[in-house]
Amino acid sequence: xxxIHLTNAQxxxxxxxxxxxxxxxxxxxxxxxxxxxxxxPGVPFFVSRVMVDASDQARAExxxxxxxxxIRETSA
Length: 76
Hints:
Elements: E1 3-9, H1 12-24, E2 29-32, H2 34-39, E3 48-53, H3 57-75
Antiparallel strand pairs: 1-3, 2-3
């Protein structure tokens, strides 16, 4: 299993949505810095790095782009 960087979550709310999306689609992931980023919200050095298996990268990127598009359309 080769884990690769998928995205950075800027806050705990964004991280919760990303984790829920991956969980709901059966994509295993690892989050680096999940708890330290909640201690120092908004500090760019303490973002949560979401990693997925290389074999799941394409599917995870499509799901993530759909989520971001949905959020953009809702807030417009």
